[in-house]
Write a structure and sequence with these properties.
By secondary structure, the protein is mostly helical. It has one domain. It contains five helices and no strands. Helix 1 packs antiparallel against helix 2 and helix 1 runs parallel beside helix 4.
Length: about 120
């Protein structure tokens, strides 16, 4: 039961990252910034990987840690984009989320390596 809830929470986290990437793409499209294509593709990739994450994790056991790192890197890229657009508070929250995602990725990777030894 706990593992099922944990998996749902991780999926929600991935969906939120993909949704934020899509919102950033929409914002950049409104500003006529050509980087909207990159953010739209990143958002769609994250959401599609989230949909198939359970099947992928059966075949590739390290996909969970990698996926959290990818989410963190995307969050950091979005934060930099928001800083470059002159936004004030939002980039700091997304920067914090990206740092936390990368920290959780390192923690899960370290935990998995300790279990394998």
């Amino acid at each position: 039961m706990l593992s099922k809830n944990k998996s749902k929470l991780e999926n929600i986290s991935h969906f939120i990252t993909g949704f934020i990437a899509l919102l950033t793409a929409f914002d950049n499209y409104g500003l006529q910034n050509p980087s909207y294509i990159i953010f739209a593709v990143l958002g769609l990739i994250v959401i599609s990987l989230t949909i198939f994450k359970n099947k992928l994790s059966e075949k590739i056991p390290w996909i969970d840690s990698t996926f959290i790192f990818i989410d963190g890197i995307i969050s950091l890229i979005i934060a930099v984009d928001y800083f470059l657009h002159g936004k004030k508070a939002l980039p700091f929250t997304i920067l914090f989320a990206g740092i936390m995602q990368i920290s959780v990725g390192f923690y899960k990777l370290k935990k998995k390596l300790a279990v394998e030894k």
